[in-house]
């Protein structure tokens, strides 16, 4: 078996495992929102298959893969059923889900970028489709729940990890080494996502240049006035030291009496 075929099988396995893991995450979100069975199924499908469905619809390169390959939809339904039965309150189940989520993030970004390049599109669309494939499902799920999408703030750096995976895929695709690029993209994105989750990494939220400039100018004025105050204070100290040695300008009372 050729290395490309082996990598394709591994990628497909990770892809399906990612569908299952993200479908379970969608079901957990439905449980948190206290939805019924229909809510579990809808959020599981959107979370597990939403990114790939949006990608295939935008690329217009044939039918949506999630609809032509029944195993994808089956895995999403299994994930919904698992989340409906099991509450996933233990530490170990959540760690396994976090690992599968990170793996699927890198895998989906790699698959999305590679499919875009196979269609003859350029680097920018490949990066966009890779990131959209990876985070599209979770974004749609959060919007359906009227929540701020996790890609706009969080400690997993989902969008950053997806862009990293897409960029590595594009780089290795340019040198005609897709199988090595798939491995490097998945491992790098998974590592970055897990490290961000472990050490609570995040991106900057906002910058206040006007306030910083005001603070700098206030400090400068205070520094400059401090020099002036020290100078004036030094002059007063010198005057007090020189005062006993200066001749008195008041007449002596004894001389006035004589």
From TrEMBL:
Membrane topology listed for this record:
Multi-pass membrane protein
Residues annotated as coiled-coil are none
Assigned keywords, A-Z: Cell membrane, Membrane, Transmembrane, Transmembrane helix
Transmembrane annotation, as ranges:
12-30, 37-58, 70-88, 95-113, 119-140, 152-173, 179-196
Domain Glycine transporter, by residue range, is: 13-86, 99-173
Q: Is S-adenosyl-L-methionine among this UniProt entry's keywords?
A: no
User: Which Pfam families does this one have?
Assistant: Gly_transporter
Primary localisation category? membrane
In which domain of life is the source organism classified?
Answer: Bacteria
Q: Where is this region: Disordered?
A: 230-258
* Intracellular or extracellular location(s): Cell membrane
Residue ranges annotated as compositionally biased, kind Basic and acidic residues, are 232-258
Stated family: Belongs to the UPF0126 family.
For this entry, the protein name equals Membrane protein
Species this protein is from: Tersicoccus solisilvae
